[in-house]
Every structure is written in structure tokens, then in C-alpha cells.
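## Example record

The block below lists the input lines for one assembly entry, exactly as stored, with component labels intact.
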Amino acid sequence: MQPVATTFFFYMLSGLAILGGVLVITRKNAVHSALALILSLLALAGLYLMLYAPFVAGVQIILYAGGIMVLFLFVIMLVNLERSQKEEQFNQQWIAGLLAAAALGALFIAIYVKGQKLFPQRILQMPEESNTQQVAVLLYGNYMFSFEIASLLLLVAIIGAVVMAKKRI
Amino acid sequence: MTDQTTTDPRRYLSHLELGEPDKTFLDTNELVINMGPQHPATHGVLRVILKLDGEKVLGTECVIGYLHRGVEKIAEHRTYTMFNPYVDRMDYVAAVSNGLGYCEAVEKLLNVQAPPRANYIRVILAELNRLASHMLWLGTHALDIGAITPLFYTFRDREEVLKIFEKYCGARLTTHAFRIGGCLYETYDGFEDDVKKFHKFVTPKIDEYEELLTTNRIWVERTKGVGSISAKDCIALGVTGPVLRASGVKWDLRKAQPYAAYSEFDFEIPTCENGDTYDRYLVRMQEMRQSLRIIEQAVGKIPDGPIMAKVPKVMKPPVGEIYHSIEAPKGELGYFIVSDGSTQPYRVRVRPPSFVNLQALDLMVRGQLVADVIAVIGTLDIVLGEVDR
Amino acid sequence: MPDEPKSPSPTPDPKQTPAAGSAAASTPEKHSAPAKPAGPAALPWDSPMVSRLKQRYGSGVEASSYLGQNYMVVDSSVVAELLRVLRDEERFDYCVDVTAAHYLEREKQFDVVWILYSFALNERIRVKTMIADGESVDSVVSIWPAANWLEREVYDMFGIRFEGHPDLKRILLPDGWKGYPLRKDYGIIQQDQEWVQINLGIESGQ
Amino acid sequence: MLASMFDGIKAYLFSGKSTPGQADSIPASLFWALVYILLIFLGLSIAVIAMNWLERKILAHMQVRLGPMRVGPHGLLQPIADALKLLIKEDITPAAADKWVFWLAPLMVVITAFTVFIVVPFGPAHAVTDMNIGILFMLGVSSLSVLGIVMAGWASNSHYPLMGALRSSAQMVSYEIAMGLAVVSAVLMTSLNDKGTGTLSMIGIVQAQAAQHVWFVFKFFPLGLIAFFIFAVAMVAETNRAPFDLPEAESELTAGFHTEYSGFRWSLFFLAEYSAMIAVSSIAVTLWLGGWLRPFTDWLSGDTWDMVFALIPGLSLLFLAGMCFYSTTRMPKHPSFRIQTAGLAGFGVVLAAAGVLLFVPPVRAWVQDIFWFSAKVAVFMYLYIWYRGTFPRYRFDQLMKVGWKILLPIGIGVLVLTAIAGVFF
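Predicted C-alpha cells for the full assembly:
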């Protein structure tokens, strides 16, 4: 089963993700950067789809783009930020930033060129059946215990939120 | 030269010692907002200034006077009969009751009794008017809370009442139906069967409204426990009419101090206990049924005889002053007339039920939510023509 | 709850007593036609309540009844206390109305009228006091909260100040309005030119 | 030509478990997918136009009035007139609005409302594609529409639309959870067939219902019904309709999030609202009412009944045509109405022709699935309008209370019980 889409889709989606990322940091308006973040998250979901992980793509859309980003926008809108929009970006060290980015880029290229044996040769054989079943079996089978611990952690976070807001109700 | 529009709404609320909303990092500023005067849910030009803590109402202040036409000043420059049509323009939804109150007050001043036939006609028209006023209240009140359909049902039935008025006295809303000393027009032939036909037509319709709203879960949830006021507060604030009866006080001027021919009919006064919006709704629905009962009895035994007492063409009531009040659909509508023996009244003071009932809005709304303010204004059944005079 | 209403039939008063100038309005002769037989006169009204009040306030209280409606003319100094007594002891728990009338030619120009009703007795009385222009009256908002807006309206229309009112300012007319419309010396077509010009921006030539 | 086209789609769809574009050749399947997308767009806009007319007429008749009568016979051309008006109306952008976000918001809402239809199964072979995470994809995309609303509220840069947007998004977010729980309990039922593994794909769910010979609404008797009921309530709240339409309630203080929009942009929101309603009802139909399966497949089985049910689509269209002809006789005789009567008669003829066409055996078999699916969705549409006619509006805190304190616990309860029931039966 050859991969689902041509390389065109791959470059388009990753280009979108990078564009989103860049916009997030350069935009002065907080809402614009939040929307750019959503753009890159959706592009990521597209990439997951290309890798035959529909379940993860679906979860990515629901949780990240649909859930967390909505709450981001909630907070941004409730706390009005007129003041912060007026201020110039005070840290002027964008030169240092560029240098660090360039160094990191060089490092990645070096790894890619040198460490050929690190990367698997043959292309991964994608599972025939949609792998949602496998994910479910793994998640609730072998990793049942860690799954429960994670949900416990979330429960604690929710209770914390309720207690913090309790004062107001 | 400050004025309502320019002054900062906060200054209005300064005299009420209202609690400060507790500051949290999310609260940008506590909210003082204007509701009205052009707001779909304030019945006419009423402006309510609300101090909010988030969604909860801390306190309110009503700014009224937008519809003030100086009726009482005009009265001092008109003769008694000329002032009669002005009275209909105050509570334009229940114009017949206004006319009835004024005519009876002047008759008391002239020490004249309207003939029984005139009294019967007056009772029938006043009760029809009460029905029409309650129907209009129900339609707009349900619309404010979100139920669109009752509005169309109630206006279709109210149309029948207005047809009878039009046939009798030529006007639908500001009817000027009565004259001082009785009624000017003899009932048109077919008046009795029109009223009987109307009675048969409307009785099942009221059950139709009840069917739609009384057991409607969302309606009950939106009205039960909203804007409740105790009997003691009602009496202290001078609130009268269905609002008072819904708080448990069994008091109705038609029974307490009967006027026109009310002492000759038997009807009950519906009351409820805990005085919230739902009870006021129930009380008014019952009142509609009682009005139908009165109309039925009255139409059955209209006496014959003259319809106009012997009243001089140019009325010069003796020097003196009297206060006469009737049970208008909204509450006790009173007229305090001072006469100095000339043809024009020296002073006419109108005691409007809506004006006094509106005072209770602040008490009923504190602690409630913004959405309830609109429900409470609806349940008080105020008409701004009467509030501002 | 209210017992059978006392029938307020007007007092049968066939005999034509000369117009006993009832204390309420000593009308100027000039615009009433030749004195036609005056109607019913104000009869003295005495009841246990009145006697109690008279005994407590003596000269300050003068009770009479006109066309079956009882009213008391009370001296302005003692009226506040009397109203409180009426509410607390005589159970007049419902303040129907607070209003005023302006008599230009009298030396004490204003009549301030309280109309009270008692649910227990199913009875309505009026309490009246006479004050000169510029004098003020004690507010009864502490006795009946209903009087809050009623007094504001009397202030708005007549300019009578009520001492102790929580927020005495105009209720129907705009705040910056000058003049008190319901006074007899305030012409019917007269408007507060200045306010109209400033706020509505029209030359309010009548 | 028609038959070959459908074979193509069938081939495309049934060449093994198809994830997007998995068929023999990419371009062929892409072409059929595009055709289907076009069909969906066409079908949806016709449905929205019909829905607009239906809502106004049915609501009017519920309220003792006639509804639009003037534009076309019985107001039939009213929706077109509305669409034209909205196109012509000036499209104002508030001065201090955030231009870019203001422009993007309606797009976001419409895109999410339409992408949901990729996985809606109108028939075993009639779906744009059959993703194996069908339901998950639908819930994900419908949660994205919240973003559109929040952006619209923010971009209009005025106090009330912002509060309205926050309120409606809070409402949608909280009812999404109740909806998710109901959906999970329905999906749980699919896994109880012989193969033992459930499926998220929409076509799979309907096939599971067919295999188990029971609609999930009647499975494990009270549980299916309760889950269906939770979904029915949550979907009304999700689309801001009827008793939950607080944000754009005119008598409330805060106006809706789309107050600053006008002209075509506003009609986009309008379009998105109706397509969201249709999408959410189609989820409900697929999950609980056996998608394209005809009703009573077991009680009234046997080919005589199949024949009867097969005739129903044709009969219903003929009935509508009959209604048109009957109303032409009752049209006022005034000459100015002559065009309208002619138009109505023409419409009747078209309907009659379509009705007769549906009796032709191959077409009859083909149209069965789509007819039953859209009939069930139509029932839901009628319910939406019925709610709007009868229910007053919930207050915001009551709305949240119903969402969190009533639907959520019951949803969890039903989920657990379904799981237990699944083990035992």
C-alpha cells in the first residue's frame, strides 16, 4: 500500500506548519498569534493523516484545535490586552536569536548527513486495518496502568481549578 | 447644565449604598450599564440603570419622564368634560378603566349617581378592558421570556375585544367610552349577543394559553422564584393590583370598596402565596376568568332605563375636594380632584398604579440575574404612559 | 380580611347651608359665577381615633368629612409625628398617595396632602397640612417607603422640599430643568427656554 | 451514463477498506470524490433554502398566521428573494474591527459546517469517503466551529458581540461533552456484534445496526433511548437553537456574535447554522435511527413489504404534487395572480414527474437509501422548528446547569450501563 499522497501534500502541510509557527512569534496581536497556532496544529493533524494515524489526527483536531485553543482565545479575550499591543517588542536581541537558529539548523543537517544508519532504511509498512483498533488495544491493554495514572493527574487539576474558582461562586 | 443623557450613569446609583463586587483578576471593571430607554423589553421608554457584579444585579435606578406630557397641568386649563379624553391617553392599554375612574370621581364631586343601566354597561366594558389588558400583558411578557407563540394567540383574541369597543364607541384603544353622569351611547343592538359570542369564544382560549405555558418546564424555571416580593414589602411600597394579590393579600377595590355595579356580581379574588413571577402569572390568568364570569352575569341582567343622569351642561361642582379610586387592571387608579366652584378643576391629581408598582422593581431585582430584570419588568405590567403621565 | 365595607354613601345633606368656607379652599370670589347654592358642606368628623388624636395634639388637628370622605387638617409642625402615630397605632399601613395643591393668594400657599388607607379597617383618610412657599416638610419615606417617588414627584412639580428624603431630585422632568410646572404662576405654554435650547438645540419659540 | 457513474463510485468506495484515495488510481477516485462533494454542496444549499421556507411557514402556521404569501405562490420564492437581498445588501465592516479576523470568522464557521458532510453516509455507497474515524472526525470538526464564533465576537470589537460570542462558545463547549458521551455509548453498541470489534466509521455503524437487526435507539431498551435523548438535547444546544438560543436573544442584554455582520457575511452565518443543524441531525440519524435503513426491516420484512416501502418515495412526491394542484384551485382568481397559479401548477407538474420517475424500478432501488435518510433528517428539522414555536428561552445559568449537572451525569451513567449491558447480553 503505497503512501497516501504525493510529496506535494507533505511539503504543503509542513510549510503551513512552519508558517504558522513563525506567525505565532512575529504577530503583535495575541489573537492573531493564537489563530496562527491553530493553523499549524491543523497542518500537523494533516501530517498525522498522511502517516495513517487517523485516530491521532482526530484527537489532535478535537483536543488541540477544538479544545485547548478555544480556552486560549477565551483567556486572551477576557483579559483585554490593549496596553500590551501598544508596546514595542522590547528585547532587541533578534540577532542573537538568528544566530541560535542558524546553529540549531546546522546541527540538524549534520545529524541527517552523518547519521545515515540512525534512520531506518525501508519505509515503514503501514498496517492494513485502520490502526485505531490497535491503538485502543495497546492503550487499554498493556498501558492500562499508566493511562489511569494520567487520568488521575487530570482529575487533580480539575479539582484544583474548581477550588480556585470556589471563592467566586 | 447636566442632563440624563450626559451624566455618568454611576452618579445615579451613588445614593444607593450598593455592595462592591468582589474583585478577581478576571474582572476588568464592575459594570454599570444602561438598559433602555430604547430597549425591546422595556414596555415603552423606561431607562433602567443596572449595577452588575458579573451577571448578578447589585442595584437598579429607574430614570423615567421620557413620556411626560403634563396631563395634570393641562387639566387645570380644561373643563371637566373636555379633560375626559386626556384620561384615556395615560394608561392607553386600559383606557376604559381610566375613563371610568375619572367620570366616577367627578360624579362623586357633583354628588350625582349614574343610573343602574349605565353602571352595568360600565362594568361590562371595564371587565372587557381588563381582559384585553391582561391579554396584552401575557403576550408581551411571554415574548420577553422567549416564548413567541402566545403573543399571536393573545393578540388574536384581544382583537375581538377591540372590535366590541369599536362597535360601541367608535374607537379601539383610547375609547372615551363614558361621560360624566353615565354613558353617552346607548348599546348598539346586538351588543349583548356580541358579548355572549365573545364570552363563548374566549373561555377555551384562556385554557389554551395555560396549556402552552403553565406546565411548560422552561417557563416554570424562568419564572418560579424570580422577582419575589413579600406581602409586607408590597404594602409598604404601596404596590397594588395583581402584584399585591400574588403576594397573598386578598384585597381588590371591587370587593373592598365596590363602585359602579360591582356589588351586584359574585366573583372571587384570586391570590397566591409566595409572590414570584409565576404566581403573578397565575393570578392574572385567574383574574381573566373572573372577569369573564362578571361579564357573563352582567350581560345576563342589564336593567333597562336611562343611561345618563341629570347633569348640567356646564358643570360647576361645588367647592371641595374628593379622592376616588377604582381597581384598574394594573392596580389602584385614584383621582384626587380639587374644585373651586368654577367650570375647570382647580387641581387634578392622578394616582397611577404603574408608577408606584415600578418602585418595587429595585427591591424585586436585587440579587437576581440580568435576564430576570426583563422578566420582572414584564411581570410588573407597567405602561409608561401612566408612569410618566 | 377586610370586613364589610362601611358604605361611603354621601352624607344626605338636603339642607342648603351657606357655603361654609371649608378650611380647604377659601376661594377667591372673582371667577366663580354668582354664588349658586353651595353643595354639601364639610361636616365635623369625630370618631374614637379623632378624639384620641385631638386629645394628644389639641389645636393642631381639625377633622372634618366632606361627601363622606374624612380628612384632617393638621398643623405643619405636628404633622410628621401624627403620620407616624397613624401608621403605628391606627394601622394606616398603606400610603396611597402624597400630593400637593398650590393656592397663590393664600399666605400659606401650599397644601400637602397624604392619602392613607388601612387594610384592617378598610378605611381611607386624607391628612392635609398647609405650608408657605420655601418651607419644607418632613419626609415620610421612613414610615411608608411608597412615598419615595411620590415625594420626588411633588418636589419636581411644586418645589416643596422634603427633609430626610434619601434622594430628593427631579423624577419626571430632566435634571437641569428650572421652574416647577404645577405651580399656578407657571404658565401652561411656558417652557424652560434655556434647557431646551442647550439640550435640544432648538429655538423654542412657542 | 448514470449507472456507470455509480458503479465507478461503488468501485472506488469498495476497493478494500478505503482510507482517502486508496482506490486503484488516485485521479479516478479524486474525480468521483469531487463529484460527490459538488452533489453535497448542491443538496445542502437546496436543503437550506427549503429549510428557510419551511421554518417560516411552519412557525407561522403554529402561530395562527400565514407566513410569507406574497413572493411567489405561498411564498415559495421567498428564500430566493432573501438570498438575493442578502447578496445585494451592503457588507459593512465596523471601523475599529480587526479586519483580517473579521473576514476569516464566517469562513471558519462555514468551512466547519460543510466539512462535516464528508463522512455523512447517505447510503451504503453514497458518501464522499468512508473514514474509519468517521464519528471522531465529525465531533472534531464541529468543535472547530466554536473558534469561528469566538473570532466573530472578538473581531466586531464591540462589547456586546464579544459577550455574546463568549456565552455561545461556552455553551457549545459544555454541550460538546454531553454529545461526546452519548456518541461513545452508541459506538459502544456497535462493538457488540459477532466480530467483537466496534467501528467508528459511519457506514460501519449503520451496517452494525443492520447486522444486529435493531436500531440502537431500541437496543438495551432504556439505555439506547436515553443516550439518544441526551444527544437530541445536546445537538439543539450545540447549534444555538430553540430553547438554547440565548446568545442572539433580542430581549437579552447581549446581542449575538453576528450583530456586526451584514449582507453576505451574515448570510454565511445563517447558512452555517442550518447546515450545522442538518449535519448534527444526520449524526443522530446515523447513530441511533439506522441511517439509510428503511423502518421496520424485521417486523414488516418480506418482499411485499419491501415493495410497499419502495413505493413510498414516489408516493410522497406525488402527494406533494397533489397538494400543489389543490392549492392552485384555491388561488385567488384576480388576474395579477395568474402567473403565480401557473408557477404553482408548473411546480406541481415537476413534482409529479419526479414522483413517477421514482416508480421506475432501478431508480426506485437507488433512491431508497437517500430517501429514508433524508426523511429521518427532515423529522429532526421539524422538531427544531417545533421547539422554536413552543419553548421559551433558558437563562444562561439554567442552560449551563442543564448541560453540566443533568446531561453529563446521565451521559456517564448511560455509558457505564451500556458497557455492562454489552457484557451480559
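The longest helix of chain C spans residues 147-158. Chains C and A do not touch (no CB pair under 8 Å).
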